[in-house]
Every structure is written in structure tokens, then in C-alpha cells.
């Protein structure tokens, strides 16, 4: 089965050739259908975290089922795509970012596979796979003009956008980007021993930094950015056969 997976929005499955659709049940429930096929000869799994009709809001995504289904299928590396708002004043809509760290401000999500004993703590000093990040950064810089490589992602509960006061707080704490889907996805991937990195595109300035935020604006920027995202993904997958060794599979539990 495919060792590489893409987790993102609907439309990216158009990259995949010779595709099949798999329905899979896990001990944590059933995630959206997974598309399996090839991109430039490489076997790939793809799942749209919000469902095929974009019907599942971010706080209702079954992140545990999604990550476990990919692991059960033999996936070892995940590239996530995220639409984000810009907290950092230097970032503008259309920019690409490869996050290096994350702050989790979600509240109601099932965020771990370790719900029972023995008590287990997993190291997230580097939440995003450093080797996979290098590939995404190299691919992006060869294809787009503005790429941010040391961004701190802030993940909020959603589905509402953040308030201006919240955005000011996140900025004071060191956040550069804000989105609604990175957590607990990145942490669950680490608990499962999977390489995980994100390619994020800035769809809007965050609350208080422009007059208002509309879903239509986000969708318009996403549509314009989609060809670049698809090219970055395709190029990165080609490069992954020569990916440097990493330590993502070496979970460091202590209890």
C-alpha cells in the first residue's frame, strides 16, 4: 500500500491517477473515504479531512480515526495542507508557509491515543518532521516567490473565526499563522510514529488586520493558490525517495 499520504481539502484528489476509493473502519470510528492511487508513479493515499462535500466542520473531524486509518493502511509519511490566516504582519494572502512549531488552543477535541494507562508522554520538541519540512521548503522555493520557513502555527477550535483580541494575544505569544485543523492532527501523527509536515497557504489577514473576513474571500484565494499547492505536492513526492533519515518513528514515551 501507499507509504505517503496527503491530508487536505477537496480537489487535491485530482492529482491522483489510477485511483480507488477505500472505506475503512478503525477502533476510533470511520474517517472520510480514502483515495488511493499514484502521482508520477508514486503510490499515494489522499483523504479530505472535511469529507468529500466539505461537510464536516473542523471541531467535528474525527482526527483519531483519520490518522489511525492511514497508519493501518501502511502510511509512514503525511503531507498536510492547511488554509490559514496571517497573524504576522509581514505575511500576505497568497504566501506559502511551512510551519516549524504549533500552539494548540482547541478545547473539545479528542487529542490523544493514550486515554488509558500506563501514563504515556510523547516528545513533541519537533512536532513537524524536519526531514519532510526540508523537502517541502525546497519544492516551494523552486515554484513560488514568497515562502515562510519558520512559521509558528496557532490552531483554534472553530468553526468561527477568531476575535481581534484573540489575534493580538496570539501575536504576543509568537504566533505567525492561525488555522483550525492542525491540532490534534500533528500530535496524533507523532503518537502514531508517522512523519508529518504541513504546507500552508495564507488565505486572509487575521481578524483586526483587515475590515472583515469572509468565507468567499478564503475560497477565492484558495482557488488561486491551488495550482501552486498541487505543484509543490507533486514535486515533493518525487523528492521523498531520497528523504533524509528522521526520528519521527522513535516515539519517546516516559511514564
If you had to describe this structure to a student in words, what would you say it looks like?
The protein is α/β, with parallel strands linked by helices. It has a single domain (4-242), classed as 3-Layer(aba) Sandwich (Rossmann fold). The protein has 5 helices and 9 strands; from the N terminus they run E-E-E-E-H-E-E-H-E-H-E-H-E-H. It has a 5-stranded mixed barrel with strand order 5-8-7-6-9. Helix 2 packs across helix 5. 43% of the residues are buried.
CATH topology: Rossmann fold
Share in helix: 25-40%
Continuous helix count? 5
Unreliable parts: none
Query: Roughly what is the average pLDDT, rounded to an integer?
Result: 91
Main beta-sheet annotation: 5 strands, mixed, barrel
Separation of termini? 34 Å
Radius of gyration: 17 Å
The proportion of strand residues reads 25-35%
Compute the number of strand runs.
Answer: 9
The helix/strand class is alpha/beta
Name the strands of the widest sheet in spatial order. Answer: 5-8-7-6-9
Envelope shape? globular
CATH architecture: 3-Layer(aba) Sandwich
The number of domains: 1
Please identify the top-level CATH class. Answer: Alpha Beta
**CATH homologous superfamily grouping:** Nucleoside phosphorylase domain
What letter string, H or E per element, gives the SSE order?
EEEEHEEHEHEHEH
Features:
255 residues; Rossmann fold; five-stranded mixed β-barrel; 5 helices
Summarize the structure.
With 255 residues, the chain is of the alpha/beta class. The chain is built from five helices and nine strands; from the N terminus they run E-E-E-E-H-E-E-H-E-H-E-H-E-H. The longest helix is centred in the C-terminal third of the chain and has 25 residues.
Amino acid at each position: 500500500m501507499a507509504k505517503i499520504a496527503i491530508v487536505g481539502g477537496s480537489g487535491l484528489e485530482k492529482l491522483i491517477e489510477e485511483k480507488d476509493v477505500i472505506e475503512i473502519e478503525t477502533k476510533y470510528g470511520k474517517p472520510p473515504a480514502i483515495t488511493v492511487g499514484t502521482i508520477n508513479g508514486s503510490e499515494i493515499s489522499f483523504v479530505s479531512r472535511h469529507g468529500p462535500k466539505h461537510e464536516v466542520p473542523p471541531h467535528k473531524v474525527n482526527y483519531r480515526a483519520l490518522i489511525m486509518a492511514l497508519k493501518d493502511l501502511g502510511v509512514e509519511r503525511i503531507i498536510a495542507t492547511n488554509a490559514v490566516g496571517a497573524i504576522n504582519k509581514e505575511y500576505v494572502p497568497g504566501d506559502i508557509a511551512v510551519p516549524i512549531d504549533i500552539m494548540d488552543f482547541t478545547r473539545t477535541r479528542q487529542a490523544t491515543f493514550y486515554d488509558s494507562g500506563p501514563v504515556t508522554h510523547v516528545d513533541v520538541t519537533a512536532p513537524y518532521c524536519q526531514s519532510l519540512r526540508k523537502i517541502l521548503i525546497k519544492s516551494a522555493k523552486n515554484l513560488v516567490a514568497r515562502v515562510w520557513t519558520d512559521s509558528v502555527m496557532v490552531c483554534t477550535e472553530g468553526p468561527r473565526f477568531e476575535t481581534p483580541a484573540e489575534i493580538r494575544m496570539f501575536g504576543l505569544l509568537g504566533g505567525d499563522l492561525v488555522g483550525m485543523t492542525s491540532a490534534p492532527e500533528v500530535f496524533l501523527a507523532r503518537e502514531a510514529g508517522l512523519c508529518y509536515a504541513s504546507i500552508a497557504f495564507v488565505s486572509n489577514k487575521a481578524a483586526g488586520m483587515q475590515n472583515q473576513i469572509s468565507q468567499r474571500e478564503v475560497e477565492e484565494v484558495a482557488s488561486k493558490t491551488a495550482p501552486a499547492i498541487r505543484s509543490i505536492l507533486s514535486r515533493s513526492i518525487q523528492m521523498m525517495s531520497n528523504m533524509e533519515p528522521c526520528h519521527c518513528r522513535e516515539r519517546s514515551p516516559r511514564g
